[in-house]
UniProtKB/TrEMBL annotation, chain B:
This is Membrane protein. The keyword Thylakoid does not apply. The chain crosses the membrane at residues 54-75, 87-108, 149-168, 175-197. Keywords: Membrane, Transmembrane, Transmembrane helix. Residues 1-43 are annotated as: Disordered. InterPro entries: DUF1468 (IPR009936). Residues 1-15 have a biased composition (Basic and acidic residues). Residues 55-198 form the DUF1468 domain. Residues 28-37 have a biased composition (Low complexity).
Length: 498, 206
């Protein structure tokens, strides 16, 4: 299967698509203020007129390239934007300040390569197993999965559950707009004919991420030149190798499973990896930790990339996105009329395995691209901010306008940009909205299907043990922060009364 | 009324854990442990109705009401089992109302979202509403002008306007960049990717 995939991925045209994907992904990912999710959203329109296999190969490259690019930004520019590379900035930027930028970039790039390759290997092993398991899933199981993804992403990824849920609610409402697939009734279209087809995912993603970010930056632009550390070719010395390889492997082991879990994301494994490496640090590493230890870059970066591969497991096998980036990838599949899930592996093996094979190739390309070209990418950081954000908005508008050549889409884009702006100001996470918007319609279809099978009896939703377990987990995800707050409150009260 | 907390437009920096877990549960603000206590109390006693975050909570609840009201007319053709096109929107609407109420309760009790951190954002700076308004006007003008003027001209105006608004120092350079970028993007999309963009005034020239 994988070999067939390589046969697909290794054709000259597809190799070119992969190269274009990783290059564009890195280039856009390096831009400050642009994380992997926005990179994927902005570059989605480029793949519209490409045949499916090529498009997904390019897309896989963009995905991994965006991750690589993000780490360069956080090492050379100490103001982390993306939460998943925040940890990398902790030690990475301190290393760069002490003149070890080349080593920090190298351990990030090689660590990402090692982690990405191992994790993609794990994906190859895990995907068929999950497919075998999921083939028997009924609509109630899929509904429960969606509910778990909703609650997990709302409560785990944000510090405040209500704010996460509010964001999720925005996404669900956006997903409702348009014609109901089962009955043909128009919902929430406000009489605007262009809204009958629903709001396109690209418009939502680009609006919330790109335009929302541009408006947010406009509201409080950091004035004055940011401090960017100059860097030469990225390389590792012998002692750096011996200090890096164990953190790479440990980071991979942490990142992959967390990435595969709903709501796991990259934040938790990168943080865990950082603190584990700090605990394990001995000798020089112990002295350097907090002042720029290479272990603190190698581990979290590996965890970050391994979790990126991990998110592909539920995405490809169940059609379940567990991060904003994965949600946009799911939208890309839907653009081609493909629904990821067990059937995708049956019906389109060439496409799925071609994409997985291209992940290996893209990773190797990224390594070659990133080590010698680090100074080139660093130059991108010097783009004056007015031009950068004007350019981001221009390309956001281009991608959205290219969809239907309709100015209504541009107005919708602006409204969603305002929403993204407000969400940023008030600390509402963006990821739940994107996941709610994309997964909401699927949850609705499965819920109605399940209830129709059960003749309207709601008990059908928990009749299958899988669905019951998943719903119980969702409840747990919602209640955990509440319980934690209550316990803290009780402890505080006890401490106060003493 | 402690105006130091309430009259600011933008949220001040707060300890990270401050906003967590205050959702929905009963109890009073001062029971929260840790060093955040004095700040919480100040925020709790000093809130006023103008606090923008409360507006956000009302928007959430209002959206729930809108979903309930806006789908009131679609239930006509519902299927026999009562699982028509209004079933899910009603769930979402009720959930949003509940979330909005909990959110408002959280804000009233002193909970705050941390403004997102970003590479180019100075979270401590006061919000610059003028620039936001200018960016909005430029973008909406672009949306209206892209069809009559065509992509190249409208796109160049969009880039130029935004760059200058955001503080580009050399207008000439911004203008040149704007023309180059919009022309290149037009050529790449129309000739390279086969996407159709309006030529507008320049139709026939390009």
């Amino acid at each position: 299967m994988l070999l067939d995939g390589f046969a697909t991925a290794l054709t000259p045209v597809n190799l070119l698509y992969a190269l274009a994907g990783v290059t564009l992904g890195t280039l856009v990912g390096v831009l400050p203020g642009i994380g992997p999710a926005m990179t994927v959203a902005l570059l989605l329109p480029i793949t519209f007129n490409v045949p499916p296999a090529g498009a997904f190969i390019m897309f896989a490259g963009i995905y991994y390239g965006g991750m690589y690019g993000g780490s360069t930004t956080s090492i050379l520019l100490n103001t982390p934007g993306e939460s998943s590379s925040m940890i990398t900035a902790l030690e990475g930027n301190k290393m760069a300040r002490r003149g070890r930028a080349a080593q920090a970039l190298a351990t990030a790039a090689i660590g990402s390569f090692v982690a990405g390759t191992i994790a993609t290997g794990l994906l190859v092993v895990a995907a068929p197993l999950v497919v075998d398991f999921a083939i028997s899933f009924g609509p109630e199981d899929y509904f429960a999965l969606a509910v778990l993804a909703f609650t997990a992403v709302s409560s785990v990824l944000s510090r405040s559950v209500v704010r996460g849920l509010a964001s999720l609610g925005f996404g669900l409402v956006i997903g409702l707009v348009g014609i109901d697939e089962q009955t043909g009734q128009a919902r929430l279209t406000l009489g605007v004919p262009q809204l009958l087809g629903g709001i396109e995912v690209v418009v939502v993603a680009v609006g919330l991420f790109a335009l929302g970010e541009a408006l947010y930056v406009a509201s409080r632009l950091r004035h004055g030149e940011p401090e960017i550390i100059p860097v030469g070719r990225a390389f590792l010395g012998r002692s750096d190798w011996s200090r890096s390889w164990r953190p790479w492997l440990r980071g991979t082991a942490l990142g992959f499973p967390f990435g595969a879990l709903p709501g796991g994301g990259a934040e938790i494994p990168t943080f865990l990896s950082y603190s584990i490496e700090r605990r394990l640090a001995r000798g020089v590493a112990r002295e350097e930790y907090g002042r720029g230890a290479i272990e603190g870059v190698a581990g979290p970066e590996a965890a970050n990339n391994a979790s990126a591969a991990g998110t592909l497991v539920p995405l490809l096998t169940l059609g379940l996105p567990t991060s904003a980036t994965a949600a946009i990838m799911l939208a890309a599949f839907q653009q081609y009329g493909l629904q990821p899930g067990p059937q995708l592996f049956d019906h389109n093996p060439a496409l799925v395995w071609g994409m997985i094979a291209s992940l290996f190739l893209g990773n190797a390309m990224l390594l070659v691209l990133n080590l010698p070209l680090a100074p080139v990418w660093a130059k991108v950081l010097h783009i004056p901010r007015p031009y950068l954000y004007a350019g981001i908005v221009l390309f956001a508008a281009l991608g959205v306008y290219a969809l239907n050549a309709s100015w209504v889409d541009l107005v919708v884009l602006y409204v969603l940009g305002l929403l993204g702006f407000a969400m940023r100001c008030f600390g509402l996470p963006i990821a739940p909205a994107v996941i709610g918007m994309i997964l909401g319609p699927m949850a609705e279809i499965q819920l109605r299907r399940a209830l129709a099978i059960g003749a309207g009896d709601a008990a059908v939703l928990v009749r299958s043990p899988i669905a019951a377990a998943l719903l119980a987990l969702s409840l747990l995800a919602l209640l955990t922060p509440l319980v934690r707050a209550l316990v803290r409150r009780l402890l505080a009260r006890r401490a106060g009364s003493r | 009324m402690s105006s130091d907390m309430s009259s600011h437009e933008e949220p001040e920096e707060r300890p990270a854990a401050g906003a967590a877990g205050a959702a929905g549960a009963g109890g009073t603000a001062e029971a929260e442990g840790g060093p955040a206590v004095p700040e919480r109390r100040a925020a709790g006693s000093g809130w006023d109705w103008r606090r923008p975050e409360l507006v956000m909570a009302l928007v959430v609840a209002g959206l729930g009401g809108f979903v309930l009201a806006g789908t009131a007319d679609v239930s006509a053709a519902s299927s026999t089992l009562g699982l028509g096109p209004r079933f899910f929107p009603v769930l979402v609407g009720i959930a949003l109302l509940l979330i909005g109420v909990c959110y408002a309760a959280d804000v009233v009790r002193g909970g705050r979202g941390d403004p997102e951190e970003s590479e180019d954002v100075d979270a401590a700076a006061p919000a610059d509403w003028r620039t936001v308004a200018q960016v909005s006007v430029i973008f909406l003008a672009f949306a209206g002008l892209v069809d009559p003027l065509g992509w190249i001209i409208a796109g160049a105006l969009l880039f130029f306007g935004l760059a200058v608004t955001l503080g580009a120092e050399h207008r000439l350079r911004a203008g040149a960049l704007a023309i180059v970028l919009s022309t290149l993007s037009y050529l790449a999309f129309v000739k390279g990717l086969g996407v159709s963009l309006p030529a507008g005034l320049l139709s026939g020239v390009i």
